[in-house]
Amino acid sequence: MADIHYFQRYSSKENTVTNNTLLLFSRLYHHDSRAFKLFLNQLLDEETSEINTMIKFEQQTSASHSVPDGAITQESFKIVIETKLYGQENIDQILRHTDSFGEESNHFLMLINVHEIPEYFKKEIRKKLTEKGTKVKLIDTTFEDIITSFRSVIADYDTEMNMIIDDYEDYCNSENLISIEDRLMRVLPVGNTSEHNFKYKLYYAPTSRSYNRRHKYLGLYTQKEIKGVGEIQLIVDAEYFKETKELKCKVMEGNEDLLTDAVKDNILQAMIHGEEDFGYQIYTGHRFFIVPKFLKTNFEKDSPGGLLGARYFDLTEYKIDKEELSIEVIAKKLNNQKWE
Question: How far apart are CA 45 and CA 99, in angstroms?
Answer without folding.
Answer: 23
